Amino acid sequence: MKRAQPAPTIPSIPPTHGSRVEHIFPTLTPAQVSRVAAQGRHRLVERGEILVDVGAQRQPFFVVTAGYLEVVQRSGSREELLAVYRPGEFTGEASMLSGRRGLVRIRAKAPSEVIEVERERVLALIQTDSDLGDVLLRAFLLRRVELIVQGLGDVVVAGSNHCASTLRIKEFLTRNGHPYAFVDLDKEEDVQGLLDGFQVTLAEVPVVVCRGETVLKNPNNKEVADCLGFNDAVDQTKARDMVVIGAGPSGLAAALCGASEGLDVLVLEMSSPGGQASASSKIENYLGFPTGISGQDLAARAYSQAQKFGAEVLVAKGANRLRCGGTRYVVDVEDGPSIPARTIVIATGARYRKPSVASLPRFEGQGVYYGATFIESQVCRGEEVIVVGGGNAAGQAAVFLAESARRVTVVVRSSGLGENMSRYLIRRIEQNPAIEVKTRAEIESLEGDFHLERVGVRDNRTGVIESRDVRHVFLMMGAVPSTAWLEGCIALDPHGFIRTGPELTADDLTASDWTLGRAPHLLETSRPGIFAVGDVRAGNVKRVASAVGEGSIAIAFVHRVLQE
């Protein structure tokens, strides 16, 4: 956020006219200031008065009308100046949308005058005032990107990039758009001194330090989310018009469309917004992005859009069980109160299949990965890697990794790539000298001490097992639906995918006590008002565009159910 520094490229924000600094720190026109003033109150602030502090749950929005406000980051007893807001400029970044805790301290640099507006009124302005909303939203998102780029957050992660838990925590924070500073223990000269400072042992890393106060030793994602207050602003007991379970492309599309049409929407996401799509390095067959877009960038945009219209998201909170008896459905949530809902959209997606290799769990995150993002690409830079799978996700990973890896071998069990992979990806792979395709083959063994060191690849035509000195394997082998938590509440097909609409049989409806005089809607399950979209649905086309379309279409049927 420092004005003095040159601005790096921001791939997740669409190109705009004018200098980037003008969009990060825009000056509102007198007319725009007047429209903001109508939603708030004028007040005087004294020099040194703190308006927002690090970790503050309540973050009002301020427009400076006279004087100056300074933005500082605290590190123990030290402070670093990040920015100064002048007359006509305003405070706030992406946490204004999500309601999460403040990341920086904002205080008066001199006696000043401001317009103070509550967060809820700011969200209403963004939704209803197109001109002003564009200015505010763009600035909020760009400021958050700057914080991420410069590692200016309220959390420090100390660990090794060769540690599965470290990569998991970094990925969790990155996909949730939360800035953090990383201390690489592999590059620290005095590792023991650093660990002593945190009062932890080497066996307890990675370490996460929240707001310079709380030290977490090898925490799970939920502990990190709780420490940083990801879900503090969300009322988890309130009955909702619609609860969306899963924040992949289909779930985010449903949340966005539902919230934009006035529904009270809550989204539950076990890990991070984006689902499997967020692990895609580059999606090139999605309408409107001729040069492609990474799955993470697409998910981040969709996440911001849904929040813009008022959808709330619970992160690191999965659904344990669906109670589908009675007149109102209830979702039992891990480590939290149950959530009543008038309608439910299930978008839990699917998870990648795993090869039957006994040592696989030992190397997950330590040489075996299920997504190829920038984080993983830096870990395997200049090395040989193996990608297992013949679908689009595997093809995208191979092409992306070939940009940084020395060599990429794609291992598929079939006789070629044509069955499940788009033609444009096949051509990219065939024309890239750094990529080799090994057909009729599979992973036979994974070996190593603390990290993956060798991979056995079996040629199924000859039975010969080739041992390769490979330290990084990316598994993208098709998917299994995430439906175990439904416990027989709704009808599934023999493979565990959810049956909907015309796919439902008379026996399915009888078993679910379907009593309505109408047939189930197109994406409706065997229970009225419960819908399934995306990869979790039987017959779904495994494409991002299809998932987004299904999530959007479901809202038309949700409205019909709510009117019944």
Any descriptors?
564 residues, alpha/beta, Glutaredoxin, FAD/NAD(P)-binding domain, 5-stranded parallel sheet, globular, disordered N terminus
How does the SSE layout of this entry go?
Blueprint: H1 20-24, H2 30-37, E1 41-45, E2 50-52, E3 61-66, E4 69-75, E5 78-85, H3 95-98, E6 105-108, E7 112-117, H4 119-128, H5 130-150, E8 155-159, H6 164-175, E9 181-184, H7 191-198, E10 207-210, E11 214-217, H8 221-228, E12 240-245, H9 249-260, E13 265-269, H10 295-308, E14 312-315, E15 319-323, E16 329-333, E17 339-346, E18 350-352, H11 360-363, E19 368-369, H12 374-379, E20 384-388, H13 392-401, E21 407-411, H14 423-431, E22 435-438, E23 441-447, E24 454-459, E25 465-468, E26 472-475, E27 479-481, H15 506-511, E28 530-532, H16 544-563
Characterise the protein shown here.
The protein is an alpha/beta fold and 564 residues long. The chain folds into four domains: 20-148, Sandwich (Jelly Rolls); 155-228, Glutaredoxin, CATH 3.40.30; 240-351 and 480-563, 3-Layer(bba) Sandwich (FAD/NAD(P)-binding domain), CATH 3.50.50.60; 360-477, FAD/NAD(P)-binding domain (3-Layer(bba) Sandwich). 28% of the residues lie in helices and 24% in strands. It is built from 16 helices and 28 strands. The strands form seven sheets. Strands 12, 13, 14, 15, 16, 17 and 28 form a seven-stranded mixed β-sheet that branches. Strands 19-26-20-21-22 form a five-stranded parallel β-sheet. β21, α14 (423-431) and β22 (435-438) form a beta-alpha-beta unit. α4 (119-128) packs across α5 (130-150) and α13 (392-401) packs parallel to α14. The termini are far apart. Mean pLDDT is 90; it is low at 2-19.
